[in-house]
Amino acid sequence: MQIKLVEVGLRDGLQNERVILATEDKVKVAQGLIKAGIRHLEVTSFVSPKWIPQLADAAQLAHQLPPLADVVYRALVPNRRGAERAGQTPIHEWAVFLSASETHNRKNINKSIEDTYPVLREVMELARQQGIRVRGYVSTVFGCPYEGEVPTEQVLRVCERLLQLGVYEISLGDTIGVATPKAVKRLLRACQRHIPLEQIAGHFHDTRGTGLANAYAALELGVRTLDTSLGGLGGCPYAPGAAGNLATEDVLYLLEQEGIDTGIDLALVCETSDFVQTKCKRALPSKVLQSYLAQ
Ligand code: HMG
Ligand code: MG
Hints:
Elements: E1 4-7, H1 9-13, H2 23-35, E2 40-45, H3 58-64, E3 72-76, H4 80-87, E4 93-99, H5 102-109, H6 113-130, E5 133-139, H7 152-165, E6 169-174, H8 181-192, E7 200-204, H9 211-221, E8 225-228, H10 248-257, H11 266-280, H12 287-294
Parallel strand pairs: 1-8, 2-3, 3-4, 4-5, 5-6, 6-7, 7-8
């Protein structure tokens, strides 16, 4: 079984940290993750630096990352301005994003869901002109911090519109970490009728400790791409309580013990997370990381 792990710590993780990491430290983190064998890294966002100051150095970082033929660097791009900025850097892939729930979308990107599509269409057009692949994120697919449960039809509608716009993959985001395996399987079965599973990624937040169980449920149903974050760094600043993406180490340990080889060295990921802990001045929540460091 081949599992693709997309490391989102430098983006989803750092966007939610109080401490702003220096660009050179972010480069060191990327180098550590690459040395560990990670090949897909979401490294930053070309969003408004007023909204996410932690990633204001997006362009500088992109230019300082080691150019390696087998490593894919991705960044979030919210609008034309973001696409123009990203387009002047060596970032390989872009990701557009919106929410399945109206209120979260407005809080996160200051627009209604319907008004977001023309903005994304512009991004897609600029990406097409430059031959850049674009992933689509749908947030709050299992629940919204403002609206509660999100109807499946609403999630499917947003996915369908993103696919029409030309994204190659959709990452389903449990932004506030409310899902449990039953909900994951229910939603994936509904999605599967319209979208091939090869085009779906699982993006779980571990806010309530169910991230790993949810990832396993997604794998059982046939999803082969998971977004994880080193040490469990992460969250969403516009989703109160959304702390901690599913930790890369926790997923790696599970996969390893289940006999699934990812080609990623767990110990080297832990070493990199330890560096991030020092820089962020807090212990990161990954249980596997903490157990590794205690040995
Ligand atoms: P806005 O204020 O509505 O934008 O923000 P605007 O078009 O009215 O522009 C206002 C100002 O921002 C202008 O500058 C623009 O130039 C500037 P001013 O004239 O005031 O000096 N601006 C920009 N500057 C740099 N880069 C840009 C850009 N765009 C406008 N791209 C906007 C709209 C989308 C920009 C804003 O709401 C924003 O940046 N939001 C980002 C929110 C964000 O990054 N959230 C976290 C990522 S999503 C997530 O974490 C979920 C995910 O992980 C999946 C999951 O877990 O569910 C993906
Ligand atoms: Mg996220």
